[in-house]
DsbA family dithiol-disulfide isomerase
Amino acid sequence: MSGRLRIDVFFDFICPWCLIGKRQLARAQDLLRVRQPGVEITTVWHGVQLLPQLPAQGEPFVDFYLKRLGSLKAVAMRLAQVQQAAMAEGVPIDLSRIVRMPNTADAHRLLERAKVLGNSAQCDVLLERLFAAYFQLQGSESGEDLGSQETLLAITRSCGFDPDAMASCLQGDGDPYIGNEAGAASGVPSFQFDGRLTVVGAQPAEALFDAMCEALLDSHRARQPA
C-alpha cells in the first residue's frame, strides 16, 4: 500500500515512558518501511509540560520523589522499577545520575523554535539529545539540567543550531509552556495516527505497527468513492 501517514506524538522530556515509547515508535516505523515501503511517514512531536508547577530552577531529583512517595525506600523502589522496565526495552537510562527534576517549559520552547529554524533531521537530533541529557544516556554528561538556559543553548550548539538565534525563546521565568495539551488528555506518551486512531502509553512496537496499518487502511477506505 502506498500513501502518507502522519504521526503526532505528545510527550515530556522527563517521562521515562515517553523515551521508551520513542524507541518503540522507531522500531514500528522501521517495520512499516520494510512491510509497506510505499508509505511516506511524517512524525510531529508535541511537547506537554507534565509539571508546570515546578519552580524555574527545578527541584532536587530525590527531594521531588521523596515528597511524592514519602520515604527513601519507596523512592528507591520506584526508581528501580522504572529503570528495570526501561532496560527490558533496551533503553539504558541511569536514574541514579539525575541531579534535578527540571522545569521543562524552556526545553519545549527550544524544540518549537528548532522546528522553525532547522530541518527535520536537525530537530530529530535535538529531540534525542534533550532526552539523553535528562536521562543520562551513554555519551551524555552527568548532571545536565534541562531547566538551565546555559545547558539548553550548549545542546543546541552541539546539534548545529545557532544559539544566538535560539536564545530569545528561552524565558527562564518558570511560566508554563502552552502547547497542544488536548492531544495528551489521556496521558503521555500519546500517539495519534492520521488523526484517526490514538494509542496511549509506551506500547510494544508491534502494537504501534498494527495501529499504523489500521490508520492507513482507514485512510484508504475514506478515499474510495461511495
Observations:
- Helices lie at 16-35, 61-69, 72-88, 105-117, 120-135, 149-158, 163-167, 205-223.
- Residues 16-35 form the longest helix (20 residues).
- The domain at 51-178 is CATH 3.40.30.10 (Glutaredoxin).
